[in-house]
Amino acid sequence: MKVAIAGAGIGGLSAAWALRKAGVAVTVFDQGPIPNPLATSHDEHRITRHIYPGLDGYGQLMPDAFRAYDTLWQDLGQRHFGPRPMVHVSRGEVSYFPAAEAEMNALGIPIRPLPLDGLAAMIPVLETSGIREAFEVGGTGVLFAARTITALAAWLAENGADLRPHSRVTDVDPDSATVTVDGRRDSFDAVIVAAGAWVSDLVPQTSQRLVPSRQLVLYLEPPQDMASAWAQAPIIIDMGSGSYGAYVLPPCNGTRLKIGDHRFTRTGHGSDDRTPTAADIAPVREALTGTLRGSDRYRIIEEKVCYYTVSANERFVSEPLGKSGWLLSACSGHGFKLGPLMGLGVADALTGKRAAEDVSRWAAGLGGL
Ligand SMILES: Cc1cc2nc3c(=O)[nH]c(=O)nc-3n(C[C@H](O)[C@H](O)[C@H](O)COP(=O)(O)OP(=O)(O)OC[C@H]3O[C@@H](n4cnc5c(N)ncnc54)[C@H](O)[C@@H]3O)c2cc1C
Prior knowledge:
Its EC number is 1.-.-.-. It contains ten helices and 20 strands.
């Protein structure tokens, strides 16, 4: 069996990894280098966690997602993961703890409420004014994303995959499993489209369903007197009072301090100019001021524009496309942590190990292994 994959982000590379392990011949095309710095997957880090507020079904997938990464680290001979606790705070009326506690208890993951009067001493980097609820949860950590996809691409090259950088796919025919690159049409037995924020260029019928969302993250240099506090700091999720949804990754293992805001813009295209605009920066600045104590003392060292692909319900799309195609699209902020697991799912579907409709339901967090 010969499979073509359009897109060499964590989705396409993970599918290629899983297929190679199943003995399938794979050709991976990317419009840029492999890995591509413009891919959503190409950033210093991504958060992984078991806790999944508000998206039923995905918490149950997380133990398998962690196991899939363990298998990947074994294959790569390198572990691009740093365990780190997470603290979740909120400043509004909504209480997130009861649902989170029930979810974590079901998975056997530690979770504990944090006393608000001890919070400033425990996490000196955090702006504590207005916090109404805080809890710490385990089973979380940092995936070093760019290092992971770089190592994965190297593993694929060493393990017989045909990697085609600078090969933009201009047309996919999922019925005949043909792929056109540089005016040349090649035939395969199956074709996977894992084109991230560019997916609707290749599968136009997804344009309403899978929407690119331009987002900005800030890389920061903390004041020197905060360095030791940051060395101990957890990953921080700050729901604000509902006005923003900040996530903060502490500097670790040679990566930089980063803050982003989870509010989607649902605008743009992956190939748009990525020079940050005032509109890109404003929401993250608001999140920064709200979340970190003494935020004006931090030096902004990079304002980075990147793209999510967003669906209305934030659930993964992993489904058959035509007679011989497969569409794999991470939706919103959970594509990296689930990448290898989703790759294994696609390989199972294409090799007939699992029924396609079961894989699609499972990937959407709707059960059915
Ligand atoms: C700011 C931000 C924060 C995030 N935080 C987290 C997090 O904390 N945890 C988490 O799990 N996830 C997070 N995510 C989501 C996660 O990074 C993505 O879901 C995931 O990386 C998407 O991977 P992908 O392979 O689908 O897409 P991509 O990584 O974008 O890969 C798609 C590839 O397809 C290529 N391509 C496109 N069109 C063509 C074509 N026609 N021909 C050839 N190649 C093509 C592109 O060049 C690209 O390399 C975050 C995303 C963003 C933007």
